[in-house]
Structures
1.
Amino acid sequence: MAGTLSLRCLHPGGGAFVVDGGRPGYRALGVTTGGPADARARKAANRLLGRNARATTLEFTGTGGRWLLNGSGQIALTGADLNWRLNGRLLENYQTLYVEGDGLLTSTPSSAGLRGYLAINGHWHLPRALGSAEAGLPGVPAVTADWSAIINWSQESTFRMDLDTRRHLPSEPVSLRVSPGPEWDWLSAEQKERLVGTTYRTGLDSNRQGIRLESAEKFFYDLPTMISSPVLPGTLQLSPAGPILLGPAAQTIGGYPRVLLVTGSDDLSEAFQVRLHDEIRLELKA
Amino acid sequence: MQRKLICKILPPGDYLTRKSALSLRQPRTITAYGPTALLLSWEQRIDPAISAGVHAYATALNHHPAVLECIPAYASLLVRYAAPRITAATLKEFIYDLRPPDYSPEERCVHELPVRYDGPDLKSSAQQLSLSPAALIELHCGPDYQVYQLGFRPGFAFLGDTPAALNIDRRATPRTHVPAGSVGLAGRQTGVYPADSPGGWQLIGRCPVPLLRSGTDPVRLRAGDLVRFLAVGSEEFIHLQNNPPPWPER
């Protein structure tokens, strides 16, 4: 058995992105590595369809928008609870779903978590650059209204479902384990304590580039200026406006002190599921 | 009016080796950057000799089988490694013992980039620097610039050093939209925006030669290359836009 499913964007919601394995190994060219903001929810979506963990999926932010599905195939939805409906009927997250004919896939703003994932069984025909279909290089369009993809499949996947769906929604409050970064010792003992002890809220400007951690009290640190140096996702930069936790789409080089690192992949996944204005705490690993 | 733009590979040892036949600068510290990367730091200055040291180590370490990638910056180098295959301590020892050959790159690409000097900040920048626009242009076209590092956006090359007379602050408020090809100044750096993006540099002109393309080799400038700017008129700008020089073969 084989088939084709086509997917067309009517509205990308709060931000839709094609995410696959990204472009590892090209940071020296200024090309960010990319990949999903919540790697474990994305992996679960692919696993439900028997796909490679890094196979192409869509990532949604806050709300999923409106999409047209046409053809036959299998899909899986994971991550944030975006209240997905197909032709008005509520869909279950974290299980194999069967699609046949024409369908209108719609979502409303998330009721838990921030980022959702859509996996579709088969090969996605999309333009690629440096091995990835993620936007950011010439020839790879960003996902906007009218973006479309054709997905061919040759083998149906068996039905699967996950029961422990709470796993990919943030606990409350989210506490991220952090370890010292390259410029940690630029801070005094008192500054370190304040930086780690503060409860932050995620700022409105947060995106795949980074999460802006806001606090009522501002940090007035008289730190030496830094010559810009490489940064990696998971780094907590101390900018004059407050700490920024870098994400998968962060620039490759930065000029703010890299004071802390979130090194656990699951911690990073959880951080990028925290909704705007929700709380994030830090916990320094010994 | 047709100008042949240089975009050529110089033979080994032809260029910078002669200029800076100094002993190779070594990193001052090697520290862990998370569980799968090491950060090598040199003296924290922007200096061609230090940059040569960074690139020499990057070239040498890229040959190590457990090294995934080397990301060079002005005075630091991030080395990502395959964690189960090598430990941080072993790789650190390897780097301490490493004596890369003096920086004589096998491939050093020289790019001539034409610029139409009509940027929105040309006049205000000239005024701020107490120069005439013509003098600013002449100064900007003077040196061969080194590509110190790529970053900020794909293919964005940080070029330096500009003459001391061109040292200028970034704009107080960054622009939310800078068109692709814009040529900017910031501090003693200069650069060309490869794609539309936000940006805070002082925009003095436009470069008609694309710095990004689709396909497997999308980035024209690489860290370690040399760039010189040529002033062109509007007619030549349009001609070059329609007939861009070939992509360097590396």
Note: Residues 81 and 134 of chain B are 49 Å apart (CA to CA).
2.
Amino acid sequence: MTDPTTKLLPFIVDRVNMGIFVLDRELNVLMWNRFMALHSGKEAEQVVGRPVTEVFPETNQRWLRKKVESVFMLGNLAFTSWEQRPYVMAFPHHRPITSDVDFMRQDCTFMPLRNKRGQVTAVCVTVNDGTDAFIYQSQLQEAMVKLEAANRTDGLTKVNNRTYWLNRLEEEVCRVERHETPLTVTLFDLDHFKQVNDTMGHLAGDQVLREVAERVQKMLRTSDVMGRYGGEEFGILLPHTDLWQAMQVVDRIRQNIAAKPVVFNGTEIPVTASFGVAQWHQKLARVDEFLSVTDEALYEAKRSGRDRCIAAKMPYW
Amino acid sequence: MLTEDQRDCLQETVNVAMGKAGDVLARLLDVFVTLSVPRIIAIERDEFGRAHNKFFDATTPVSVVRQGFYSSRHSQGLRGECILVFNETSYRELAELMSYDHNDLDESAETELLVDVTNVLCGACLGGFAEQVGDTLSYSRPSLAGRQVPVESIFASIATSNDRILLISISFKIENRTFDCTMLLMMPAIAVTQLVEVLDRLLEAV
């Protein structure tokens, strides 16, 4: 019996970059490799022969007992994953600088160890460090959230873009159809905006759009949804709001825009806007007609002198 | 895929295995677990998209966990994937059975429960089945394939590189508990060829 692997095995088991330990049915530790000692701060001599839950009182004893018992009874592998249970034992990890993870993420596998008659006599637990995978997954999720936000935001004004705003309008219309709560929408357009661009340049125009969008956004409730509908045209969804309430909200927004000029390179640019407002009515043929009656009211506000709010004439009322 | 004799033999073998599995589960969980009579069905590639109709009502969303299994005899034995479809489940009751702290179950804890139950059910049923056909199995780490997803999605993930698969379905109920889940044990044609050889040997021995 001079098989070299026999000599190598204990060395490998001890030094492999993976936690390996063995428990009996009463959760007493029978073996504890170097990885476990290094990461737990407890040498094999301090741990072997004692119940693991006594050495690490923070481990969930009832849960661990059931887990080990299932391996004894079924003679089957059992698993834990950091995706659901971040760790079984609280170990420090190797990224204290480049992450704010609290403890090493662990994937554990529980394996039955059998005697010559095939009976399960102990359970071997392997511990894989999943901290890196956890960090990568978290970063991926963060990136997805950012990407989603970028995908729905208007680059210049930072309010929602047209596509997202229209989708939200569709959703809101579907919702009020079911719940019969009021929904009002307004479209507004900055007055004589082309003149700002023509006389003061596009940078000035951009500044006006940015500042107006920011000012209006600040006046809205969290449930209201604002979007850039076109060049200098914006839309706002006002859920749970009827036409009468909406007219007051919208008129406050109009006054706020007109109250203070936008300053660009030391020059004051007076700004006003015209608003069309409409409340959803179930006889409207979906979103297109909803927007077109709102747009007609906006046109009416322009035609009758600008800097005002006009409620849509509903064809059915 | 199977002759009538082979099919009867497989049905018999699976029935015996599931009877044993029921016993083991009852001892482990300390409750009566009722297993349905296993259904054995071959599903052709062009049926994958609507195979869920054979097993489920299309309306209620389900949670799905999958686990791979493979023979220790490598390509000479059983191989496939086990998919557990959880219908109506009381997580609280399940947590109690599995000795989890059932007072604060967040989504992760609920998922871990499903994954854990899958491992136990697969281990008990497949282990018994493998024993009946003189095989021993290893298992992959089970993973969540979907939470509250439409049942259509279960079969949508079957790779169309398979011409056909053999499917054994078993439903589980636990006495006095809100627990309703179905195990879909799926094997690719190549593994079935191996299984058929075993069944033929069993038939010859009779």
Note: The CA atoms of residues 182 and 241 of chain A lie 5 Å apart.
